[in-house]
Amino acid sequence: MNQLQSMRVFVKVADLGSFVGAATALDLSTAVITRHVADLETRLGTRLLNRTTRRLSLTEAGRTYLERVRHILDDLEGVEQMVVARNHEPVGTLRIVAPVVFGLHTLAPVVQSYAARYPDVVPDVTLADRQVDLVEEGFDVGILATRHMRSGSIVTRRLTTGYMTVCATPAYLAQHGTPTRPEDLLNHPCLARSSEHGGEEKVFATPEGGEVRVRPGNAIGANNTEMLRQFALLGMGVAILPSYLIGRDLASGRLVPLLTDYRLPQVEITIAYPSRLHLPAKVRTFIDHLVEHFQQTSPPARAPRVIVPARSVPEPMANVEVRPTVAAAAVALPAGAVRRLPKVPRARIVASSSV
């Protein structure tokens, strides 16, 4: 028989002084109650109760055992109540993981407002530009700009959309001219992540519904987009950065959005958590808080258009290739090359978690 249940039965028998009374209180038969007590005595190798036809009494061993067992059962009940409370009331440490730049520029005010709203929860934030296994690494919530995760048991939910924006400072544009077409990027120093050094193909959706593919050569590389933002603010070139990183710079005029008639692939930001089953209150409330925050602060459907007078830029006709077939899109482009394509279905872009 179940030892824990036998202990509960023994305490009830001792408190009521009756097998029949314990059977009634626990909704069990008298035979089952008797068997539980007998199993305990067999396990312990000692008698716990003195039985007569009129009454029951505890032996010395029974009194000692009852005192200790009562404490054990009380502690167990307290633990169960604590676990239930933690699942229904936001409390405890909440382990969060997010990409570095997104965390530094976007997550801090959300965590601050959540902590003020739920003071019994202690947020513990980890910023990491790598693939994350939420289950193995013990995270409660992950904010990700990627679908590449090593755990198959996670649940994901779209949080917001980031827009990649071509930008530069007003001073840089005044000195070097303003790009008005994707091809014009070939005539400007481009700022990009080190992994893209040598030129990564950029796919722009045109106003007419087609695509232009450009592979500009990079002048300056960095392994962090915040560093690229700093380079851009120093007027060192043209950068393509996510909207959540440069939103304040665009609003203040420190950076100017370029090529606003063209669209780059979006960056889907998702929230991930290990399972929907028995979701702790601290996780559930944080997810709801995140969604509420980003619903209130979502970016517009597309980046605002800002008109900047452009200087004339030499026409890079030697680097432009026009092909009428979709198959041409599969041909590799050398650094500094451009291909303009007719309208074709756009493939879904999966963003890196390091954005």
Description:
InterPro entries: LysR-type_TF_proteobact-type, LysR_HTH_N, LysR_subst-bd, WH-like_DNA-bd_sf, WH_DNA-bd_sf. This is HTH-type transcriptional regulator DmlR. Belongs to the LysR transcriptional regulatory family. The chain is an alpha/beta fold. It folds into 3 domains: 3-88, Orthogonal Bundle (Arc Repressor Mutant, subunit A); 92-160 and 269-296, Periplasmic binding protein-like II (D-Maltodextrin-Binding Protein, domain 2, 3-Layer(aba) Sandwich); 164-264 and 301-341, D-Maltodextrin-Binding Protein, domain 2, CATH 3.40.190. Helix content is 37%, strand content 23%. The protein is built from 10 helices and 15 strands. The protein has helices at 3-16, 19-26, 30-44, 60-88, 100-117, 134-137, 170-176, 225-233, 243-252, 281-296; strands at residues 49-51, 56-58, 92-98, 121-127, 141-144, 155-168, 190-193, 202-205, 211-215, 218-222, 238-242, 256-258, 266-273, 320-322, 337-341. The strands form 3 sheets. Strands 3, 4, 5, 6, 7, 10, 11, 12 and 13 form a 9-stranded mixed sheet that branches. It has a 4-stranded mixed sheet with strand order 8-9-15-14, with no helix packed on it. A two-stranded antiparallel sheet has the order 1-2. A hairpin with a 4-residue loop joins strand 1 and strand 2 (56-58). It is rod-shaped, with a radius of gyration of 33 Å.
